[in-house]
Amino acid sequence: MESSVSKIREKLDKKEAVVMTAQEVSELVAKGEDISTMDVDVVTTATRAIMSGTYAILSFPVNSPAHFKRASKVLLNGIPAHVGPCPNERLGILDLIVFGTAHSTYEHNYGAGHLFRELVEGKNIEVAVETDENVSFKCDVRLEDMPYAKLYATRHTFKNYAAFVNCSSEPVDTIFHAASFDPDMKEATLSGSGEINPIQNDPNMETIGVGTRMLMNGAEGFVIGDGTRSSPGKPNLAGVADMHDMDPALMGGFKTSAGPECIASWAIAIPVTSQSILDAVMETDKDIPMVVNDIDKRTMISSSTYADAWKGTDRSVGFHPNSCINCDTCEPTRDCPMNAIYYKNDKMVLDRYLCFNCGLCSTICPGNVFTAELGKLHFEMDDKKYDIPIVLRQTDRKRSEELAVKLKKKIEDGEFKLNEMVERIYP
Ligand code: SF4
Ligand code: SF4
Q1: Distance of CA 96 to CAs 56, 152, 262, Å?
Q2: Residue 172 bridge partners (DSSP)
Q3: Residue 198 Cα, ligand 2 centroid: separation in angstroms?
Q4: Percentage of residues in the chain with pLDDT exceeding 70?
Q5: Which of 93, 127, 155, 373 is most buried when burial is the number of CB atoms within 10 A of its CB?
Q6: What's phi and psi for 75, nearest 5 deg?
Q7: Which H helix or E strand runs over 211?
Q8: Å from CA of 341 to ligand 2 middle
Q9: One domain, residues 126 and 187
């Protein structure tokens, strides 16, 4: 039976609506339950992953009026910002655009993703300004000092993404691996939260459109249209949200062998207004194709499914510090993309707040200090079958699932209001 957003909103207001996470629906499907559009009104979806197409617009005072004419160059904790477009002549105010893929000029593994998270954590950020009159000065700024700080997506939350292997005979440095990608198809990495990915649950974008309210890094924001490289077959979204309301645990920087990248999270509530949406919601990881790409040539070589990534695998790593055999070089400490493994008072720590649940440490620790079942990528190519060990997930399915639960609770408590889109993205 067809429904509408307004009817579902009425049910929500009367506390009569059924809200489920996409994960809960998948669990019912796995048990063989028969679900109809009468059984569920809203499905919450989420993904936390590396999302390069991110930029921030920041505006804040750094000096008294007339102290300088215009800024010409600005670094934030060493990250180059683009000054303008508004010149703010003689106002002592900076308007800046900071690309999520920008890297610090003095710290190799520090990028704009780290900067955005530190801003949201309320930390002091060093601002180094050069003016067009060749005067330089520095000051500190915090998010609370910024009247305007918004994060924009140029390309976020693809319907799902892909897995990667390296078919060449040489290691490849890439944004799709935290270390050099081993050659000869020895290992695989992947992105995409599968059955709980937002657009995967509304693939025809019947309810997700321009103006749809969503959560970006935990803050309420809006879809503003399609993102770059989006197409009806492989859609993604552009959006915006206020950094003042964001949750630092849902964002951050991620070290790769091609430099630091930016993490972002999205949560979208899908009103179940049609059978076609329900059909998509009921697809589980085993039904969802995961394209397999060669990282060297960036070409598709085969296809697997998201069951390889997320069915029967561990969402997070186990930590057994007493098993440590004190190797000469501790690769997990060196290669952890979040710097979440370190020593404190001579004791090894796994910082769960920083950890992205990528799993890499479990594949490079000979002492089994870090343990996780990450699964294997199964596919066929040229009539040959491959089972390639997955060594890194660039989607944090654990926090994605938690985020979908959080959005469900917000909807049930009336804190997050479903809205109608203003315009369809793909009519
Ligand atoms: S790699 Fe594992 S076993 Fe070796 S020092 Fe590091 S934590 Fe210990
Ligand atoms: S799973 Fe291991 S390597 Fe990955 S972020 Fe967490 S601690 Fe670091």
Answers
A1: 8, 13, 18
A2: 181
A3: 24
A4: 100
A5: 127
A6: -120, 135
A7: none
A8: 7
A9: no
